[in-house]
Specification:
Domain HTH araC/xylS-type: 227-325
Helix content: 40-55%
CATH class of the largest domain: Alpha Beta
Protein name: Transcriptional regulator GlxA family with amidase domain
Distance between the termini: 74 Å
CATH superfamily of the largest domain: Class I glutamine amidotransferase (GATase) domain
Strand content: 5-15%
CATH topology of the largest domain: Rossmann fold
GO molecular function, one term: DNA-binding transcription factor activity
Number of domains: 2
InterPro entries: Class_I_gatase-like, DJ-1/PfpI, Homeodomain-like_sf, HTH_AraC, INH-QAR, Tscrpt_reg_AraC-type_HTH
Keywords: DNA-binding, Transcription, Transcription regulation
Shape: globular
Length: 328
């Protein structure tokens, strides 16, 4: 490293807040992308970037796999950082972070420091009231729980990560490296991004347009537009979207979407949507004590008569008959 490089001030400074039982992979992939982008030849030099693990104490914090990490800094002025990244993990009954951490995050927000939630770090930010009026990206695995805990929040689980003004969110796992690479490219340039990805053996960083790895309905399809629409259908069973709305969500007309579904999976969007609603209804009928009107409303019907007709047309039995004899 040259003398000029050594005297450069880091252009990207990140503070990490780790929750109890945080996800080690999300933290490691994000911080290593920053580390490798900061210097050449994998020397771990903090030339272009700097980072700290900050906390209310210096006590070890256990990850969900049992590996422990010690904070390297107490809470300092949040404005020292370009981003504060909250790394979540297991969702449990005990608070993921203490009150001092929540106060620090609120102070960072007041100072307009961008906040990022990795994995379930978005739950921590939302619990603190810091995700209101911001779109949140979560893993499909945690989508329903996020909706249940934070009604009224704008949440999606079709994309890998999302940046909405001074909020970032990420599904976790390998998408943490994609989000970190995006930030590196914005702050440090393409060369720094390429250096990090090459050492990590990542051929190409995915973007915020890429779809989470998943096969809705176990349907094999390699078209990201079809996958995105299927996920959106699953997320919109109660408030049914029109086929036109589904088409617009992926930049297509209704006719184009119908043609795409016919080409890729040989079934219409409307039939798939009905199948999803009926599968959800069957689960509620056989595994819960919910009333038929409640079930009908949960899968997008306004009355039980219409719901019962569609259910019987799908399964050959009414919801009442299936509930009385589920194995018949």
């Amino acid at each position: 490293m040259s003398g000029d490089e050594a005297t450069k001030r880091p252009r990207l400074k990140i503070g990490f807040v780790l929750s109890r039982s945080f996800t080690l992979s999300a933290f490691a992939l994000f911080i290593d992308t920053i580390r490798l982008a900061s210097d050449e030849y994998d020397r771990s030099g903090r030339v272009l970037a700097d980072w700290q693990v900050i906390g209310s104490t210096r006590h070890l914090i256990s990850s969900s796999c049992g590996v422990q990490v010690a904070p390297t800094s107490d809470f300092v002025d949040p404005s020292r950082f370009d981003y504060i990244v909250v790394v979540g993990g297991l969702l449990g009954r005990q608070p993921a972070v203490d009150d001092q951490t929540i106060a620090f995050l609120k102070k960072a927000d007041a100072q307009k420091v961008p906040l990022i939630g990795l994995c379930t770090g978005t739950f921590i930010l939302a619990e603190a009231g810091l995700m209101k009026n911001h779109q949140t990206c979560v893993s499909w695995l945690h989508y329903q729980e996020f909706r249940d805990r934070f009604p009224g929040h704008d949440v999606r689980s079709d994309r890998l990560f999302n940046l909405d003004r001074r909020r970032g969110s990420c599904a976790g796992g390998s998408s943490s490296a994609d989000l970190a690479a995006f930030i590196v490219r914005q702050y440090l340039g393409h060369d720094a991004e390429r250096n990090a990805l090459e050492v990590l053996q990542i051929e190409k960083a995915r973007t915020n347009k890429d779809i989470q790895v998943r096969r809705p309905l176990t349907i094999e399809c390699d078209d990201p537009r079809v996958k995105a629409v299927l996920i959106l259908m699953e997320q919109s069973l109660e408030n049914e979207l029109t086929i036109d709305q589904l088409a617009r969500s992926v930049g297509l007309s209704r006719r184009q979407l119908e043609r795409l579904f016919a080409q890729k999976i040989d079934v219409s969007p409307a039939r798939i949507y009905t199948k999803l609603r009926m599968e959800r209804a069957k689960m509620l009928v056989t595994q819960t004590n919910a009333s038929l009107i409640d079930i009908a409303l949960q899968v997008g019907f306004q009355n039980t008569s219409h719901f019962t007709r569609v259910f019987k047309g799908t399964y050959g039995r009414t919801p009442g008959q299936m509930r009385s004899h589920p194995a018949a």
